[in-house]
Amino acid sequence: MTAPDELAAVRYVVDDVAAAVHFYTTHLGFGVRNDFAPAFADVVRGPLRLLLSGPASSGARATPEDSAAPGRNRIHLIVDDLDTEIARLRTAGLSFRGDVIAGPGGRQILLTDPAGNLVELFESAPR
């Protein structure tokens, strides 16, 4: 087990590591920790370490064949102003899945990375 003060890590299987690194660093404020493209890279934002595993990486090869489609899980990034983020990312030509959804805790929208993995952008409801 990792120590409580270590980074939490999530693995996304991607078809193009360089495109994924560009997406997360350019548009979502991640920094590169390691870059072994085309096989693997990991990027960091706060306490989140995002492992980007290309087809040649051991992490991707360990994924069962019938799991080729992106999963329903997603990373969750909190933003201060959802509408501003959506406008900025649409201007950059990025794709969203669906519209903004509002609930008692706040508002959210799903963004897709170049491989189709989901990223939830979330703005908390006013307190």
TrEMBL record:
Residues 6-124 form the VOC domain. Pfam families: Glyoxalase. Keywords: Metal-binding. It comes from the Bacteria. CDD domains: VOC. InterPro entries: Glyas_Bleomycin-R_OHBP_Dase, Glyas_Fos-R_dOase_dom, MMCE/EMCE_epimerase, VOC_core. This is VOC family protein.
